[in-house]
Each structure stands twice: as structure tokens, then as C-alpha cells.
Amino acid sequence: MKRPMFLLSVLLIISNSALGQPAPKLPIESYANLPRFSMADLSPSSERILFRMVEDDKDYLIIKNLADNKVIGGVNLGDINPSSAFFIDEDRVVLQVYQHKRLHGYRGRHNVSTAFIYHVKTNNVVQLLVPGKGIFLGQTGLGKIVGISADKQFAFMPAYTGEKHVDTPPYSLMRVPLDTQKSPRPRLWKRGNNHVTDYFVDEQGELLAVESYDNKADLHVVSSYISGEKVDIFTETTGLLTKNFVGLTPDKDALVMLRSDEHNGDSYYKMSLTDGSVSDPLFVKENKEIDRVLMDSERVVYGVEYAGFKPSYAFFDKRIESLFDALQEKMPNNSFDILDHSTDWEKILLRVEGESAPADYYLYTKEGFQFLASARPNIDPAYVNPVVETSFAAADGLTIPTLITHPVGHELATKKLPTIVMPHGGPQSHDKNGFDWLAQFFANRGYLVIQPQFRGSSGFGNEFIAKGYGQWGRKMQSDLDDALHAFIAKQYVDENRVCMFGWSYGGYAALTASVTAPQLYKCIIAINGVSDLEDMLRSERMDHGSDHWVVNYWNMAMRNGDANDDILKQFSPINFVDKVQAPVLIIAGDIDKVVPVSQSRDMVDELKAAKKDVTYLELEGEGHSILNSNKSRLTTLTAIETFLAKHL
Description:
The chain is α+β, with helices and mostly antiparallel strands. It is built from 12 helices and 35 strands. It has 2 domains: 39-374, Methylamine Dehydrogenase, Chain H; 385-533 and 574-647, Alpha/Beta hydrolase fold, catalytic domain (Rossmann fold). It is globular, with a radius of gyration of 25 Å.
């Protein structure tokens, strides 16, 4: 499908004209298939663009000329699963990828991050850091790039270095050639130690700062090298990291630091590399929580994105800020994600989602919008189901922000609809008002979809997050039931046809609902869900060590300092399967490294032993997100559709 090259407001007219009549039932593949286009980036000249393209279950990286839209390069990515891609210059692209693979000399398979460089002219792909060439064999993180030299000939990449038999290898900085057509020979650039976690460098790769964290001593340190000598400018003893150093200011005289504040939310500050002094908060906006910083490949920060249902932005350059405020004001039902931009911001690459677009890519210039590609060309903008931002009061009076997706042509409260309550994963995450492929699929099939942002969700301030600590299975759970009651009262929901569906933490919430509110839900669907909190915490200890800050976080999130292990048992649905009444569908990836597949298998075994109605689907070669292939996603969505048709 080819979108016209004019302002998006025209698409709103097209979309609104379809209201009043239901959308046709689209093929399940329209939603199950991976987006055709994703991961866009502009070349330094803004004359070329790259896309990740999935076609016929094959995965490609393609390079196009923007002037004539012709493909000038491309490579089959095969088993490479890029998480990001960006141009170094007009003819070289860096791919940062994740692969599930075996490590020589180690048992099992592991999620390994790696970086490759793709040469457009020669169509050659080269891995940048290869274990064994001075690189410690037993590590999974080799894809991080902390800087690129001014002449674009070298990347500066941290890695554990030394021999395989070393128990505590140093985390050092390597200088890696970028102009080679074969595996490069990296040079040990700066030797580190096993407490180092990050490096900040200038255009020549010279150290500006080094960050470290000692898990045993709970000691967080930042050392500056800007004077030519090591000076510790920040020291904090903490079992849970409260400061996050994310990038550099444009003059590279300061680090940009995120600091959490329980009452005012996360704020960003400048920390001077000279003396460690901290500025006033940056980018403060009332009732807005900062979601992420916007920075370039040199880790220079130029702005921030605020959290919430739709992204909004603040920039050092107020001219750019005004531009995006105007865009959002003109088209309030669309979300604009900034993907890249020219150096002078005269050209901006955007992904647009919302009422008029199932994730479309545009180039914005002073002349207007140029349509580039649609992530889902098989879904007409007129058939994107409306998403409503609303809220309700939980039982204790707390306001819970909520998204509701309803079928095209349906007006809320005119007819009660069968309903899917769909809590997000995380749990410290939040849903966005964009094209959610699952919510859109359910709405296309005639369901109302409710996505409550239960307490503990991010995006609505740190106080809101903190209200979720220790509330797994308690108020975080009752918020979901309260959502259902609130929208039943508004005549939106057919109370006799309600299912809870969730993924990851959402899967935990769905399984918990089956034992805490069996009268409310007629069916339960959980993908890669947690069923046993005690076992989950045990797995985290095995993976990270009992004194690791990650384990400290999960202890706080699950039980908020309560040392009574019975708390974890009390709120683990696996211990109460006798209370389950509704049919349950459990889906899991067999190589999930976030929530072990044993969490699903054990829950299924307990349900079967209790003679409950349970269906189990295990996907071979799939991890936590089930994103590896169209086949897996189609199998998943088909199983869900069949299950809902039978039980709802």
C-alpha cells in the first residue's frame, strides 16, 4: 500500500470517515506478522535511509536513496537479530544485535549481544569484537559502543579481557578498526577492572570518565580523567543504584545523570567532570516523568522524551521543542516518535502511530511530510481501531490511568462488548497510545480491550511507582479488578464475557486473577508469566548473586523489605490452583531468559494435577518476547483466537 505524500491530517479525515460501520475482519497475519519495516535511520548527509525489512519470513537490512526511493544495498540478516542499526557514514552501518547461541566451553545457550559492521559497497558483514582475540570467552555483552573516532576509523567498545580461566576478568576498553573487510584485530586501549560498568570518551577515545560498581561493597563510583589524572567525583554506598549516568553534554564537560526522587520523579542533572558539582534539574516539566534521553552515537544528549500515553519532548534547542508541540497539538490522536535527524534538524525522521497510522514512517522537512514506508502495509488506516485515554478510581481512591481500545464503528456505552483486560509487563513499565498489535487484533475481532496502568507502572511519576512496591498480588492486582468494575458500571463491558490476558508480569497478573477473582474472569491467558515468586527470586539470585543490585530491586518490588518468605508463597498462584475455575491457556518460549520456562511448565503440571481445564503451548526456539519469526507469532495468535472463540 502506498501512502500519499501530504499532511497527516488528511489521513485523519480518511480514518474518521470509516466510523459508523464496523471494520472487516482482517486476516490474522495482518497482526501476527512482524512489522514489514522497522529500525529506520538516516545517513549523515540525510540522502540515504536504512530499514530493517521482513518479507516472506526473511529478515533484511536495506539501504535506500531518499531522492528516488531506490534500493542501493541490502543484506539478508539470517540469524542476526538487530536491536539497533545506525550509519557511520554513507557506506557503513553498525548493527547491534542479540543472538541466542552457545558459548565455547560453557553449557547451554545464552543471549549474546554483538556488534557488526555492514559495508554497503561490498555487501560484507563483519563482526567487530570476537571472543578469543584478547577478549574473554565467557561473556555475553560484546555489542556496546561508547564512542566512534572523529575520522570514523575506530569504535571504542568495552569488553571483559584476558584468559578464559580468570575468575574476575577486567572490564576494559578496546579500540576496534571499522575499515576492515574481515574480522578486525582490536587493540586494548584502556585496561579496567572487574568493577567497571561504563566508559565515557572523547572523539579520540581518550577517557573522560569511568563508572564502576562493587556489588559486594555496594559502592558506586564515578572517576573523572578530564584533568589527565583520575579524580573520584562521585561516591555512594547503596545496595540499589539510584543514579544512572547516561551520556555527555554537547561540550563534553559534564555527564548527564538521572537521579530518582520518590516525590518529584526522575530528574536529569549535569555533573561537572571537573569537580563533581551537580546542576539544577534539567528538563523539568510539571506532571511529566522523563522516559529516556535523546542522544547520538557519540552519547551526546540533545533532549529528552517524557513518559506517558503519548511521547512528548524537550530539547536544549527550544526551536525544535516548539515544532513538536505544534505537531502534537494539531494531531492529538497520533504519537510522534523521533528516530533520527539531520545535524541542523532541517530533516527529521519520524514514526507516526495512532488513529490514522498503523506505524508509518515519514520524513519531515520545512516543505511538509514525505511518506516513506508503512510498518503494516496490509492494514488500511481506516481500520485502525480507536484508542481512548481515560482513568478510574481504585478502591482506595487512587486514580489509575487507562487505555481503552474499541472496534472501529462502535460507540462506547451503546452496546456491552466482550472484554479483554490486558495488564502490561514489567511491572515498572507502561502502555502507550500507539498501534498495539495485540490490542488492535482483539478489537478487530470485536472485543473491548482495557489496559489499566496499575500502581507500580512507570510513566506517571515516582510516587505512583513506589505505591507498587510490595504489592504483587495485592493492590497491583486489585487495581485490575477495580478497572473491570468501573467499566462495567459505565456499560462498556459484558460482565459475562471477560478474559484476562497478560505477558510476563501481565502473565503473572492473569494467573493470579484465576485464583483471586475466579468469579470475574471466564478465561485466563498467560504468556511467559511468573507463577512462583519464591522460585523466581531464587533464579535471580542464581543468575546474579545474592548481593547483586538486581536481586535487591526484586526484593523491594515483590515484598518491599518484608523478610517473611511466606509473603512470596502467599502471592504465588501456583500454590492455589485449587481455586481456579476458568479455563487457562499458558504459552511459553522454551529459551526465555527473563522468566524461566519452568515457571509455565510447573504451573501447567499443578493445574493438570488438580484436574483443571488448561491448554499449554510451548514455542521452540523462542524467548521472552516471541519475536523471532512470523511463524511463532501466527501460532501464538491462532491459539489465542481459538481459545477465546471457545470460552468467551
